[in-house]
């Protein structure tokens, strides 16, 4: 699996770029939104990637953030959503917009993407609504996930020496209740909820489940904020 590509842009196409990584060129397909943010030929770039493998085809798809890559992976699991439709949705809404539309059940927003019909948009919302809190929590726990991947320094791109032996990965940090509540509040604010009502819902959710992680708090708060009918 090729999870990330760092190099220099050789050329840009209508729906892809060719990235030169130490003499090897990788064709990476991107959404219109991502392509618009990329630098010109000869400039350094880094993209998180997802590799699609079929019997007669291998394609790399590139994303500026881990959150957007995760949404692509989830969207591709929905019946009727292929790579082209997934990139169309992400290109139209961006990672934050997809999180907001799916969490709020905004079928119209998903349907606005080119080539996505009403039934497919409805299926996306229904199948992925429970996944939204987890992705939103991921955005809060990964600082690099909410911004563009920084361009790699020249010495990293050009270096020929083998990389040093990586250190052991640190043990995952357990998020405190306060940190989880803060991330949940931030996620709800991104969805457009007023600070007061978001804070009230998160506080109630935290009171009901003091040890809940961020994704569980978001899910519980969304249920409290859902219209009663």
From TrEMBL:
Location(s) in or outside the cell: Cytoplasm
Region (Domain III), start-end ranges: 176-229
Segments for region (Domain I): 1-64
Main location: cytoplasm
Residues of the Holliday junction DNA helicase RuvA C-terminal domain: 180-226
Domain DNA helicase Holliday junction RuvA type, residue spans: 1-62
Pfam families cross-referenced by the UniProt entry: HHH_5 (PF14520), RuvA_C (PF07499), RuvA_N (PF01330)
InterPro entries from the UniProt entry: DNA_helicase_Holl-junc_RuvA_I, NA-bd_OB-fold, RuvA, RuvA_2-like, RuvA_C, RuvA_C_sf
Keyword terms, alphabetized: Cytoplasm, DNA damage, DNA recombination, DNA repair, DNA-binding
Family membership: Belongs to the RuvA family.
Subunit: Homotetramer. Forms an RuvA(8)-RuvB(12)-Holliday junction (HJ) complex. HJ DNA is sandwiched between 2 RuvA tetramers; dsDNA enters through RuvA and exits via RuvB. An RuvB hexamer assembles on each DNA strand where it exits the tetramer. Each RuvB hexamer is contacted by two RuvA subunits (via domain III) on 2 adjacent RuvB subunits; this complex drives branch migration. In the full resolvosome a probable DNA-RuvA(4)-RuvB(12)-RuvC(2) complex forms which resolves the HJ.
Annotated NCBIfam families: ruvA
Entry comment, domain topic: Has three domains with a flexible linker between the domains II and III and assumes an 'L' shape. Domain III is highly mobile and contacts RuvB.
Role noted for this protein: The RuvA-RuvB-RuvC complex processes Holliday junction (HJ) DNA during genetic recombination and DNA repair, while the RuvA-RuvB complex plays an important role in the rescue of blocked DNA replication forks via replication fork reversal (RFR). RuvA specifically binds to HJ cruciform DNA, conferring on it an open structure. The RuvB hexamer acts as an ATP-dependent pump, pulling dsDNA into and through the RuvAB complex. HJ branch migration allows RuvC to scan DNA until it finds its consensus sequence, where it cleaves and resolves the cruciform DNA.
Full protein name: Holliday junction branch migration complex subunit RuvA
Organism: Thalassovita aquimarina
